[in-house]
Design brief:
5 copies of one chain form a homopentamer.
Chain A lengths: L1 E8 L2 E4 L8 E6 L4 E5 L9 E6 L1 H6 L9 E7 L5
Antiparallel strand pairs in A: 1-3, 1-5, 3-4, 5-6
Main location (chains A, B, C, D, E): other
Pfam family, one (chains A, B, C, D, E): EutN_CcmL
Subcellular location (chains A, B, C, D, E): Bacterial microcompartment
């Protein structure tokens, strides 16, 4: 898993049906890369979270059918990057 | 998932049968890398999209038998890179 | 698999139910990157470990339902980085 | 998927039985990295190809039992890197 | 797949039961990174090998239950890096 900071919700013109209804969040990695994840927890911009990738990301989103390769797994307490 | 910009359709001399009939698009990552993805949505060059990787990419293409590790998942509204 | 050094336990404000009850550890890679893994072995800060990624990480955590993409697989004897 | 150029066939002293009988090719990525892929298409050195990674690579090789994480998926027409 | 050089066997203080009894080898990538793989072939330090990652790595190790994400797939003849 990796540690990311939540930046904003992603606004989508169109998306595949099987993304479900979870919010899609833009995240920054600790090395500055931009990533996108499903958020089943309800994070706020500025929160530090850890994310789960690949096949476990689909179950983490709450349903194996969800189309994701990255899902927020938890909010980190008092993270000092 | 990651954020990419659509560049062009890829012209192929030959391809495996089980790619299906979806267009294959060349994408640029935000760090400048070149990637290739199936496009079930019908994006245009210049569109900013997010892409889904690995096992979820196959379902995202519409059929688990499709041979892909990267599929366009949605078009992003007003993205400022 | 990769070689990582254990830094600390991760304190979480909230986490998904299906992480199980294993401790979540912050690790450093040999190139300085920060990662997060489930720890079924009981490592201490400073230990050098190898980690197992992706689908095998879930079985390594002791249960295929666990939501992880990285799990500590063993402690390395006398590692000189 | 990624775009690679075919360099040469790989000569092997020994290999696992379940690689099947497909040729194993050395590829260069657009950033200069060296990779190895199964080639079910019959490419020649100098060809530009796109490659399919991870679980789809096994099906792309023609049989889910094949032991590969990267398979050539098609030859690209007139690629200007 | 990738090309790696075998450095040494890894000595482990403790490891998960389901690693099986295969030796665990430390490898160097062509870009200098350090990796760890199961070795079902019996390589020697200095051998150039190619490695298989992720789900195929488990079957390559000889048993789908083995906990690995990287397995040696074959020894390369006369590799000049």
């Amino acid at each position: 898993m990796e540690i990311h900071q939540v930046k904003q919700q992603l606004l989508l013109t169109s998306r595949l049906d099987d993304m479900g209804h979870l919010p899609v969040k833009v995240l920054k990695s600790m090395s500055g890369a931009t990533l996108v994840a499903l958020d089943p927890i309800g994070t706020k911009p500025g929160d530090w979270v850890f994310t789960i990738a690949n096949s476990a990301a689909r179950d983490a989103a709450g349903d194996k059918r969800y189309l994701t390769d990255l899902t927020v797994g938890g909010i980190i307490d008092n993270w000092q990057p």
